[in-house]
Amino acid sequence: MDAYLEWVCKAWQSIPVDAIVASFKTCGITNAFDGSEDGMIHCFKPHGPIPAGRTLLDNARGAQNLVQLVEEIDLNENEHNGY
Q: Where does the source fall among the domains of life (predicted)?
C-alpha cells in the first residue's frame, strides 16, 4: 500500500498546478459564482453532452437572484412597518 500511495503522490506532484486548476474549472467545480467562467465548463460547450446546460444554469442563477431580491425587499418592508 505504501508503494501505491507513493506512486499516487508522485503522479499528482508531476502535474502542473495550472493544469489542475484548469481541469477543475472545465468540470465546473471551482468556477466563479457570477457566471463569468461558465463558458469553461466542458459539458456545456456546443458539442458537449449538455449544450443547453449553460442556459439552464443562467436561468437558475437568475431565479435565485430574484428570490434573494424579493426576500430583501420583504425584510426592508418589515423593518419599515415595525415588524
A: Eukaryota
Q: pLDDT tens-digit profile of 12-40?
A: 999 999 999 999 999 999 998 888 999 89
CA distance 48 to 42: 6
**49 versus 70: which is more confidently predicted?**
49
Grid look-up 505504501 returns 2
